[in-house]
């Protein structure tokens, strides 16, 4: 009997992994899948794996957050512990790859063009809205605005309802990650960094427009710029916030938390550039870290299984994530039509782009520098022009 | 009979010293193994450019320290930490002391009071941070709801740049005062009842005079320890920031240990992070030494 | 006589004032807990209902607590917590008490350096030295064991400081009497110092147990197998990746995990009130 | 400040199930100096603590002066106390220990403030006065050279004197002193005694004074209260207590060496004889039965020949001689009863007696008339006539 | 277990700058019972603590038996101590307080283990024996009914007896007792005294016994060591100390009431006269100058007419009479010197004297010959002949 040790972040997600493991073990009776203690988030998980690399005690399969995949691979490559998936993919039939995964999805698991992980969860931001408030504000909840100006106008209407009710809160700087900031750049077709990765790719009118736009949202909707996402998420739960933009993975838990106090609906992200605009994908990819070739083979089987159509459909139903497997979408048809809130995620598969990972392990630091500036811009304490300059120089500094 | 030479004497002291060695050696050995040696490793690392998980390592002298000196972030973190400590320590100690004094004078309900006041100590910050973020919520938090009900303007405790640090301090005081409360309670129990009886007859039976002349001086050693511990704990504030504000907004809550953590474990700059830690330890060390020195000077 | 008429009145004011302050403190201390417990017993949907912040409408005790018990092995986590906390506490008392005794009651050179070492150990944030300790434990292949969980905490400088401060007030003569009674230092420690230190040991136990019970930082570094996971991991199970925490169960888990600590306090509390000299000397 | 009277009425106290004070009734006049004497553990300290307000009585009431103080806290009762275990303030030097209560009464709340208090008008003069009184009390108790020491650095007797000085510096209406001289040497003790008596006379305060030293009690007190097993057994002037003990227990508690006791029989005519004696040696009004007779050791004369008449006499042999400075104790064994007896002689008397050589053989102990006490079977004192009724009639 | 001798050689100790013991030399034979007497604060407790090994002497050495113990820790010296402040174990009941030392010596380390220890072979029997000894010690000190109490729930005297019982239960070579009876009532005190003496005789241990009560010291001790100001001033049998004090200080420290002192002049012929007297009353070998004469209170006879011859005599008037049970103190004022003097009479003597009525006017105090002591200017005792040389010659 062989044991496959698996590590994933977010202990709360364990309920999604265990059934897959059980199913896998049923199919492979001589394999035991064991989960290691799960770290609270992607960054912590990355730390755990880095430490494991130092002591030579890596798990066999690891679900790495997209945003930390690149630094992880960089570290492991230097230590000779990285396991590219190329040989395993090569061993499969060509059709298999195409039938199951879209290139856009696959690219999320690549570092420098080499496939290191197969995406397991993927999500692009969607809008959650309080249909009751929308109705009260005199709009049609079935036709949620699909462009930002519409969204802003609706938010203003909701503001006008009075009381403590707010239309929206889009404090980009309050996020722990730069997901929405990248979304704001990418949706305009911008680039996060220049090709040589020495400077920001939006030190131009595009970047300026982005900042101006964020400032505009704050001003137009009379927004209380927040430090932490929690504060307006809670407001949303309390039924006092019109809409809230985040990952589709929370559909289920949001519905639970809200219950029948108001009707919560989801809508696609109001993309600006519908041609070249993309949205950064959050989520994680299954990465093989096993050293022993036999284990690696087994691990590959496991990775294939959990990113397979059945497993992906299961995950999508349980959470709201968009499935990373093409075939799964077909399986999900009936579910989506009866659960439209879940379907939103799948409609954005086409515009899923990769969440840009900075070289080395500078990502967190760069975001910390940027978010302060964005916060100031949104609060109206700094002009977008100066803000952009500051972001550009600080980022360039940190990339040195 | 000859008088023993003084040189033969020390054996008594030796035997006492030997017993003392046996008493302290387990603690010392473990302190060395579990604190001093790892700390030595940190000291060494602080002179290198080591990156977490990296394979190469170079000695770069005091460059890390120079960089700390140049860094605005480090300066800001020190300032924030100092402000935080200055807010938390006096409040926690005072609240803990007052409550311990009042509660220990209670009769029947004393034990129930103690249990209730002890609760904050049990809190898991991961959860309590969520609870507090709601309690202090700018719109729907009970405090603001109450303020609004009184016709006052709501306060954005956690997103106002000016208020966020005091708000975190408030939460820290909530927990630390419970710690102080328990230590003071134990300290109070060490004061002999007889002394209070004598005081009662000397008309120092209650109130301020009894506190000033009997309780406070006899509690002084406890207070010194409490002050020291609370100061160190306040300096080491980390969880609150990590869970609630991540140093924001605009670095208003970026404290030393959080900055260190970011450097070492988010940016993987172990070398630089180690240098920061060294400075942190030196800094807190100086502050607490001063504190103890003052305390000792005050009581002969 | 004026004192006759004014005294009861004044003491009434004083006592109601002190009651007022106590209750103010209690409200401050308990507010978050009240909210936590309320949230753990009501429908998560209600938690954010501002109008009924403190008035649950529909109870969901079964759902919230049931989910905690069904989805996480919270009881086995707690068992781990009990094992680890007991081991740690026993070791800390066993190492700190003799050390504190030596500091407070024995004459030897190196007392000051020893105290300095203890304070230094107190200054060092654990996060700073966790990595070297982790590597050391890996080197002796002790990771992922109970030993790894307790090893860094076998000695507590906090305990050394608290105990030695407390023992300073213990009458020397009682110890001298024991020495004349031919008690070894071990016997003195076990039969005289230990019972006499109970108030401060009780206080320290509360700190130690709550700290290690709630500690998540070190367990997440030291262990990888879920069999050894600490109680607080049970809380993380109800925090979701993208923000939609399962509030009801989260609070239920937190309440469950806090309960044993209240119990620990109740046990320790009996000791707080005992004085130190207690008729030992004139 | 005049003294306050102390009136205890049916005061009762128990610790757990053990009754420690049983219906204590006691009244002490203002300005009186009363010693409380009694065996160890009989409840003396408890009684003092109840009067002081440190302990609550279960029943009964206490009046100090005209005021019923049952509900009054300790600080509001006008009294000072010397604790048996001193209860000094460990963190204060001797001077501060003594000064504390004075500062509380002499300085106003404002003047007591830490720094400000010193510069307030009047404060300086009062503080000067206080420090004078502290010095005076320290002089009386001979601890003036120790004023800056902490209690931990004092010897046992020095600590006790600090406790004494602390009470003496105040001049309250009532002094409660719980064995305030027990750790002092004889010389100091004598001088402290007279300081206490002087104080009593000078300020007229009422003193209640626990002691286990009878010479303290006999030398100082206006009256002695004898307490046993939680009850006041007798109260009276020293001489009353010594000369007319109300009970066997009192008689054998007071007097050193202890009173000699011998079993006697009383016949129906009220004649008293030793249990195995034939000759009656006195008369009483007790009914027929057995009783006890007590003879103080100093009431015995040692004579060579059996005396005639009806005096109480015993034949005895020497056990041992104890020389105690100015006096000598003669321990002997009475031949008929087999009981032991003690005689106390001055050195001169002893020299005289031993010069005669009678001590080497059997000799006779003859009781002087007034040293003989009779107690009934319960131990209560009974009237005793050294002469038989017939003799008395004859004498008439 | 035979007693151990105690030999102190040049033991010196100071606290800070204050010398507390100054070159103490003392040797106590095995089995001897020596009282250490001295004024409060003279260093008695310190000396005991040094012998016990609780305090370190700065210089000098200590031998117990044949062994120099300077380097021996307290627990290894074969001695038990009663602390002046009791030092009971607060968390143990009385029985455990007493048993602890026995358990330490009688049980092996293994047998002392909390639970396991009880079931080990032999442990039961030893524990039984220990509990018997505990009970025995408790019986002797009359605390058997308190065995399960904690010290906090005892009265002062009861605590003291626990401390005593704790020392007595062990039977070591040396007992050090620091005022072990100070808080006991007279009756108990007397019985404790004899228990201690019995113990001394029975087990032959050496006792060093601090007391401030002279009657304790006089009644119990083989020898008395008199300590003053950190020095041993005199050591000898009780009678020696009382009858032949080596120094004024000793004379005035021992004896109660205190010895009467009068200034005298010595002329070149060695004749001694009162400073303002004309008649010499004895002779000495002191040089010409002033000196002091001491007369014990019991050595005075009160007579009506001035005596003839060369006896020491003073004319006096009554100040006050103090009745102390069996005896009476007469405080009077001498007319010529203006000094006060105290006489001690038995009640009988007093009755006789007062019957004559002389006390109401001027009367004469005449010293018996052997009660008169002479001291030179430094206070050292000097040989004194109650008769002048001429008279002696005549007598020859
Ligand atoms: N710890 C100390 N520090 C400073 N001085 C001390 C200390 N202990 C005792 N002394 C001083 O040393 C002297 C001797 O003290 P010691 O206790 O030996 O006296 P003692 O003869 O036992 O007196 P007492 O009969 O009052 O108990 C005293 O003057 C005392 O003040
Ligand atoms: N706190 C207590 N708990 C229980 N019993 C107590 C307590 N204090 C005193 N006692 C008991 O009450 C009785 C009276 O005690 P108290 O102290 O009044 O005696 P005392 O007359 O002062 O004796 P001593 O002369 O020995 O000091 C004693 O038998 C004692 O054991
Ligand atoms: Mg008493
Ligand atoms: Mg002493």
Could you give a short description of this structure?
Chain C: This is Carbohydrate ABC transporter permease. The complex is a heteropentamer, with one copy of chain A (400 residues), one copy of chain B (300 residues), one copy of chain C (282 residues) and two copies of chain D (396 residues). Chain A is an alpha/beta fold and 400 residues long.
**Stretches of chain D where pLDDT falls below 50 for ≥5 residues?**
none
> Structural class from helices and strands of chain B?
mainly alpha
Distance between the termini of chain D: 55 Å
**Shape field of chain B:** globular
> Roughly what is the average pLDDT of chain D, rounded to an integer?
87
Q: Please compute the radius of gyration of chain B using only Cα atoms.
A: 25 Å
Rg for CA atoms of chain D: 26 Å
Q: What is the count of DSSP helices of chain D, taking H or I runs of 4+ residues?
A: 11
What do these coordinates show?
Chains D, E: This is ABC transporter ATP-binding protein. Chains D, E: It comes from Phyllobacterium zundukense. Chains D, E: Keywords: ATP-binding, Nucleotide-binding, Plasmid. The complex is a heteropentamer, with one copy of chain A (400 residues), one copy of chain B (300 residues), one copy of chain C (282 residues) and two copies of chain D (396 residues). Chain A has 400 residues and is α/β, with parallel strands linked by helices. Chain A is 50% helix and 14% strand. With 282 residues, chain C is mostly helical. Helix content of chain C is 72%, strand content 0%. Chain C has 14 helices and no strands. In chain C, α1 (2-41) packs antiparallel against α14 (247-272) and α9 runs antiparallel to α10 (185-196). The longest helix of chain C has 40 residues, at 2-41. Chain D is of the alpha+beta class and 396 residues long. Chain D starts with 5 loop residues before the first strand and ends with a helix. The relative contact order of chain D is 0.11. Chains in contact: A-B, A-C, B-C, B-D, B-E, C-D, C-E, D-E. Chain B binds chain E through residues 1, 3-4, 6, 8-9, 11-13, 15-16, and chain E through 7, 9-10, 53, 56, 59-61, 63, 68, 70-73. The structure holds adenosine-5'-triphosphate (2 copies) and magnesium ion (2 copies). One adenosine-5'-triphosphate (ATP) sits between chains E (15, 20, 38, 40-46, 84) and D (153-158, 183).
């Amino acid at each position: 009997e062989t044991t496959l040790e698996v590590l994933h972040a977010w202990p709360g997600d364990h309920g999604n992994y265990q059934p897959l493991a059980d199913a896998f073990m049923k199919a492979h009776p001589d394999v035991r899948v064991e989960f290691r203690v799960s770290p609270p988030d992607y960054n912590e998980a990355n730390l755990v794996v880095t430490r494991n690399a130092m002591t030579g005690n890596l798990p066999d399969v690891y679900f790495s957050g997209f945003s930390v995949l690149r630094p992880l691979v960089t570290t492991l490559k230097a230590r000779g512990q990285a396991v590219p998936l190329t040989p395993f993919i090569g061993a499969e039939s060509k059709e298999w790859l195409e039938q199951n995964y879209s290139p856009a999805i696959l690219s999320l698991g690549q570092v420098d063009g080499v496939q290191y992980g197969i995406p397991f969860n993927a999500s692009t931001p969607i809008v959650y809205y309080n249909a009751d408030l929308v109705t009260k504000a005199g709009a049609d909840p079935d036709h949620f605005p699909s462009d930002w100006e519409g969204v802003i106008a609706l938010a203003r209407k909701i503001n006008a309802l009075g009381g403590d009710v707010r239309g929206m809160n889009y404090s980009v700087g309050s996020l722990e990650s730069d997901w929405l900031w990248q979304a704001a750049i990418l949706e305009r077709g911008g680039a996060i960094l220049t090709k040589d990765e020495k400077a920001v790719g939006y030190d131009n009118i595009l970047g300026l427009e982005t900042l101006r736009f964020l400032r505009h949202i704050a001003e137009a909707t009379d927004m209380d710029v927040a430090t932490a996402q929690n504060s307006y998420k809670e407001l949303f739960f309390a039924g006092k916030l019109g809409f809230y933009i985040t990952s589709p993975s929370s559909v289920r838990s949001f519905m639970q938390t809200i219950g029948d106090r108001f009707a919560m609906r989801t809508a696609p992200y109001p993309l600006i550039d519908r041609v070249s605009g993309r949205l950064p994908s959050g989520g994680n990819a299954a990465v093989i870290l096993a050293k022993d070739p036999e284990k690696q083979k087994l691990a590959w089987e496991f990775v294939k299984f959990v990113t397979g159509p059945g497993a992906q459909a299961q995950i999508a139903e349980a959470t709201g994530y968009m499935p990373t497997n093409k075939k799964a979408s077909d399986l999900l048809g009936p579910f989506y039509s009866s659960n439209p809130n879940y379907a939103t995620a799948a409609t954005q598969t086409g515009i899923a782009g990769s969440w840009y990972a900075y070289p080395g392990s500078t990502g967190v630091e760069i975001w910390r520098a940027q978010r302060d500036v964005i916060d100031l811009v949104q609060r109206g304490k700094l002009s977008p022009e100066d803000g952009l300059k500051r972001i550009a120089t600080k980022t360039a500094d940190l990339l040195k | 009979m000859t008088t023993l030479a003084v040189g033969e004497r020390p054996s008594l002291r030796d035997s006492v010293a030997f017993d003392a060695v046996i008493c302290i050696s387990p603690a010392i050995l473990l302190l060395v193994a579990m604190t001093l040696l790892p700390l030595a490793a940190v000291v060494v690392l602080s002179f290198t450019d080591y990156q977490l998980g990296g394979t190469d390592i170079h000695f770069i002298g005091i460059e890390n320290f120079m960089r700390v000196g140049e860094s605005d972030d480090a300066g800001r973190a020190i300032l924030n930490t100092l402000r935080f400590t200055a807010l938390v320590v006096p409040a926690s100690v005072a609240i803990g002391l007052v409550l311990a004094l009042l509660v220990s004078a209670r009769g029947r309900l004393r034990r129930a009071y103690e249990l209730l006041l002890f609760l904050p100590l049990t809190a898991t910050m991961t959860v309590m941070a969520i609870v507090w973020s709601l309690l202090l919520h700018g719109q729907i938090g009970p405090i603001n709801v109450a303020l609004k009900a009184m016709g006052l303007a709501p306060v954005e405790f956690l997103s106002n740049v000016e208020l966020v640090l005091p708000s975190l301090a408030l939460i820290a005081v909530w927990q630390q005062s419970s710690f102080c409360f328990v230590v003071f309670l134990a300290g109070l129990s060490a004061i002999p009842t007889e002394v209070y009886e004598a005081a009662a007859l000397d008309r120092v039976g209650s109130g301020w005079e009894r506190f000033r002349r009997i309780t406070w001086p006899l509690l002084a050693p406890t207070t010194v320890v409490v002050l020291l511990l609370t100061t160190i704990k306040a300096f080491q504030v980390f969880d609150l920031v990590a869970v609630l504000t991540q140093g924001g907004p605009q670095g208003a809550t970026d404290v030393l240990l959080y900055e260190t953590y970011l450097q070492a474990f988010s940016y993987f700059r172990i070398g630089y992070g180690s240098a920061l830690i060294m400075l942190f330890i030196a800094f807190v060390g100086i502050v607490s030494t001063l504190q103890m020195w003052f305390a000792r000077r005050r009581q002969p | 006589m004026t004192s006759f008429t004014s005294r009861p009145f004044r003491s009434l004011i004083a006592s109601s004032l002190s009651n007022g302050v106590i209750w103010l403190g209690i409200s401050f201390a308990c507010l978050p807990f009240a909210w936590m417990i309320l949230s753990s017993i009501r429908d998560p949907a209600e938690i954010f209902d501002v109008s009924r912040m403190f008035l649950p409408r529909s109870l969901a005790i079964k759902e919230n607590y049931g989910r905690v018990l069904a989805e996480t092995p919270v009881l086995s986590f707690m068992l781990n917590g009990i094992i680890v906390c007991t081991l740690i506490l026993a070791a800390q008392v066993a190492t700190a008490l003799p050390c504190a005794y030596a500091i407070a009651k024995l004459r030897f050179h190196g007392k000051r350096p020893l105290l300095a070492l203890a304070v230094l150990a107190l200054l060092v944030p654990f996060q700073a030295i966790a990595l070297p300790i982790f590597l050391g434990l890996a080197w002796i292949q002790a990771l992922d064991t109970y030993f790894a969980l307790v090893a860094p905490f076998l000695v507590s400088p906090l305990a050394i400081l608290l105990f030695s401060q407390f023992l300073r007030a213990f009458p020397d003569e009682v110890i001298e009497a024991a020495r004349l009674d031919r008690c070894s230092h071990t016997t003195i420690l076990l039969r005289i110092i230990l019972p006499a230190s109970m108030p401060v040991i009780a206080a320290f136990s509360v700190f130690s147990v709550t700290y290690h019970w709630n500690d998540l930082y070190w367990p997440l570094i030291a262990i990888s197998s879920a069999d050894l996971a600490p109680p607080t991991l049970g809380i993380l199970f109800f925090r979701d990746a993208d923000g939609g925490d399962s509030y009801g169960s989260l609070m239920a888990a937190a309440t469950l995990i806090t309960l044993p600590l209240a119990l620990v306090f109740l046990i320790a509390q009996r000791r707080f009130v005992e004085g130190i000299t207690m008729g030992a000397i004139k | 400040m005049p003294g306050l009277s102390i009136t205890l009425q049916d005061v009762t106290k128990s610790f757990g199930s053990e009754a420690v004070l049983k219906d204590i009734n006691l009244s002490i006049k203002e300005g009186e100096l009363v010693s409380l004497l009694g065996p160890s553990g009989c409840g003396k300290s408890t009684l003092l603590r109840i009067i002081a307000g440190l302990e609550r009585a279960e029943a009964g009431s206490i009046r100090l002066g005209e005021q019923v103080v049952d509900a009054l806290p300790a600080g509001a009762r006008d009294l000072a106390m010397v604790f048996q275990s001193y209860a000094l303030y460990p963190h204060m030097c001797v001077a501060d220990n003594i000064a504390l209560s004075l500062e509380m009464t002499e300085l106003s709340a404002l003047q007591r403030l830490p720094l400000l208090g010193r510069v307030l008008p009047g404060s300086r003069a009062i503080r000067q006065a206080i420090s004078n009184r502290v010095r005076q009390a320290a002089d009386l108790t001979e601890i003036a050279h120790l004023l800056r020491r902490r209690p931990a650095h004092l010897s046992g007797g020095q600590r006790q004197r600090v406790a004494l000085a602390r009470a003496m510096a105040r001049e309250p209406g009532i002094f409660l002193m719980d064995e305030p001289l027990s750790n002092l040497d004889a010389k100091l003790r004598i001088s402290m005694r007279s300081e206490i008596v002087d104080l009593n006379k000078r300020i007229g305060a009422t003193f209640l004074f626990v002691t286990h030293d009878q010479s303290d009690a006999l030398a100082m007190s206006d009256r002695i209260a004898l307490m046993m097993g939680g009850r006041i057994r007798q109260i009276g002037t020293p001489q009353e207590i010594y000369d007319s003990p109300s009970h066997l227990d009192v008689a054998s508690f007071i007097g050193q060496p202890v009173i000699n006791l011998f079993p006697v029989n009383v016949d129906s005519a009220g004649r008293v004889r030793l249990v195995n004696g034939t000759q009656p040696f006195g008369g009483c009004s007790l009914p027929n039965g057995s009783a006890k007779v007590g003879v103080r050791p100093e009431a015995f004369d040692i004579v060579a020949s059996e005396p005639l008449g009806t005096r109480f006499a015993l034949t005895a042999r020497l056990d041992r001689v104890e020389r105690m400075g100015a006096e000598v104790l003669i321990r002997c064994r009475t031949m008929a009863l087999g009981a032991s007896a003690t005689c106390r002689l001055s050195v001169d008397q002893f020299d005289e007696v031993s010069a005669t050589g009678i001590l080497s053989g059997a000799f006779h102990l003859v009781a002087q008339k007034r040293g003989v006490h009779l107690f009934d079977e319960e131990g209560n004192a009974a009237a005793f006539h050294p002469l038989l009724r017939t003799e008395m009639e004859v004498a008439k």
